[in-house]
């Protein structure tokens, strides 16, 4: 596999500034392959002493990362542990937050469930005003967020908006996400690339020790504990065994999830009537 | 007393979705009767295994819940304890936050002091853009919030805005409350009912176990401790004995509080000159 | 030195409401003299039992307080301790937050680095919409915030926006600062004085015990610990010894920092290219 074909593809703009492209057709669905790509990336970041900033974006403007694979391709990411000693799912996100390297999510398209949890684990989030569908729809699937969403959202947006996002299980557009503090800013789509690139180049010009020290200090007052993440993940694994969640997952797959592009783009809209008989 | 005449009236739209109407003329003033109604409601919620969501609204568009009764009708809600072992005032709000059932405040009209603390204890708050007067005016009455406002506001709106709300002791309209994060959203009055009803129906269609698990996880990183609530309540009870607070309460009652509709709607406006001699 | 010539000048509007003017030409640069003025002010506040509120503003509309002096005039504020037992830099800000007196920052002009940390230590912040340049540019100078910025910002604006402010090291205008929660509100410049004066007069009319009790309760759930502040200050002192930071400080001074008015107003703009060779 050449680098240009990898689902998590690194473009080294300079030794200090990398872009990472998610490119995993058809819909950038998050499965064990994506997590392996992120683990490989974290190892490469850890051994790159000049690196300051990584911008995460999608090769597909309709799907940033769509959501967890619901057909069983998630491998052992909830049971095998990573370098931090935490399960791979949590290890990936926790190591990203604690890295001395700055992570920036540049968001276009659909970002739901575990994908929302990925952008919440990034240091900053900038979203397309016209083209963002961000949310935590798990409760509408009979589950709940298991990769940090319930831990990170309340600190960012407050308990009331966190409960609305998680219990309403619906999409948030760029403007609402900005108003709630879910993303740093929503920008007009035409300005998003320029804004993020200028910010990344600026950060890339700064001294790595200063960046790392500042990030460490902010982390000490703003990161949830590993215990809380493990509690969520355990509860999520239990929820996957419930017959109610299995019934909802089945209904979504039958309607076209992970297969039909239009349904994949809009599926949270049907969650409130998913099990209605006609 | 028939159900339709109760000051805290339950309308069971379905077994999963209830509306609760505050209807206690003339101004929905919060006294021991309102707290008894809320305690009865909580007991009924606890024994309703199909229930998912309760929307709290007012039968009177000018007053959601106005404020604590200042004429002595608050009974023993600060001394007698409820099922949680906490004083009724705190017990009511803490049990609401910890309930597996989702609580939504649909706000129109005046919501001040303990009433603001009630909506802060709800899981979500949606307010009429044109018709909301929300605040914690206690400091302007020589007191301070005693039912959780000082504990819940900083997490929602940050220390600076919490101090402005509490020390400024003034009303906030819907738009400012949204901008501050005091409410989830302010909506045009004509859209408020439709928005909240659609959200409630959606949540009511989800599985109760998933809702409860998600809410429990968010609560673990976002609820203040009982010790902090008790500290505030104790301090509030002391403040009620101060001659300064009694003098201000007396001045407000003499000006028409709890009797004159126009004064009841606008009284925080006079707090900055309440004791001025003419 | 007469009072009217002091760099930190007190105007006692009433015994309950003081204005404090920063007036330290040419640019209100923060050095040991400013901290001595603030220490004297705190002692005076502590012995003024009628005082309720202090509004901090600048005599110079272009510079509120500019930033830490980078030419060595900071005296012993990081090593000598104040009445709280903490180093003067931290002692000043911590005592301001814990004072029973309410502190309000009325912001016009440039407010960067330690000056941003001063306004973050105030109870509330109101900024001119047209004339505010607020930020924490330390990382762009090879340093990081050392006076509480990394501890206070995440609670106010969330981790993502705190990281953007600190790692981006750029200016924020009034509107963006309001949207982020960095300030309570941005107001049209023509309305700023009237708004803050009305709020201060209102608070000044309230009872001091009620104000102090409310502020104490909010502080208990919203103030960072002294340990975290000391960690930041220690790390900052180390960062000052790095050759990278010394090189950047030197480059800024050579370009006109602390001497050239136009450069002083706009210097964060050049931080991304500060060391580029031409």
Describe the protein in words.
The structure is a homotrimer of 278-residue chains. With 278 residues, chain A is α/β, with parallel strands linked by helices. Chain A is 45% helix and 17% strand. In chain A, helix 1 packs parallel to helix 2 (88-98). At the A-B interface, helix 4, helix 8 and helix 9 of A face helix 4, helix 6 and helix 7 of B.
Brief summary:
Three copies of one chain form a homotrimer. Chain A has 278 residues and is α/β, with parallel strands linked by helices.
Keywords:
alpha/beta, 10 helices, 7-stranded mixed β-sheet, globular, 278 residues, 45% helix, homotrimer
Write the layout of secondary structure elements.
The structure is a homotrimer of 278-residue chains.
Chain A (H helix, E strand, L loop, with lengths): L7 E5 L4 E6 L9 H15 L6 E6 L4 E3 L22 H11 L3 E11 L1 H8 L2 E12 L13 H20 L5 H7 L4 E3 L1 H16 L3 H13 L5 H15 L2 H13 L5 H6 L12
Parallel strand pairs in A: 2-3, 3-5, 4-5, 5-6, 6-7
Antiparallel strand pairs in A: 1-2
Helix pairs in contact in A: 1-2
